[in-house]
Amino acid sequence: MDGISDYMGPVFEEICTEYLWRQAKAHALPFIPAVIGKWWGTNPLLKQQDDIDILALDKTETEGIFCECKYRNRPMPMEEYDDLVQATAAFPKVTKKHLIFFSKGGYTQPVIERAQREGTQLLSISDLF
Predict the structure, then answer these.
(1) Helix/strand/coil (H, E, C) string of the chain?
(2) pLDDT in tens, 85-95
């Protein structure tokens, strides 16, 4: 059971991806995504490999939803928020960026406050069903 979070990480990402597809079909997202999936590549800001757990782009690739999924028992810290913001730099053509975080363990208070200021969605497991 010690490694359950490691095992469940990719499973949780798939559940979150399915949630995003359901939201898209219900027209509950800021735009209709042309593509939704995981992204791996080189981040020009960091000049190194980076990833985004779930990325949804519109057909013009100028609007995107960037998601981070954390299946851990502890609240998500600000470092995770900052990492996703940095990862969005790999998409300079995307001028309208929306952030969504999915966290099993909730969020630290600074993350909650920043998300409220920036209009970022913070979702829990109970929000997915």
Answers:
(1) CCCHHHHHHHHHHHHHHHHHHHHHHCCCCCCCCCEEEEEEEEECCCCEEEEEEEEEECCCCCEEEEEEEECCCCCECHHHHHHHHHHHHHCCCCCEEEEEEEECCCECHHHHHHHHHHCCEEECHHHHC
(2) 999 999 999 99
Q: Are 50 and 87 in contact (CB under 8 A)?
A: yes
- List the domain boundaries for the chain: 4-128
CB-side neighbour CA atoms (13 Å) of 46:
17
Q: pTM of the predicted model, to two decimals? A: 0.93
- CATH number for the region 4-128 comes to 3.40.1350.10
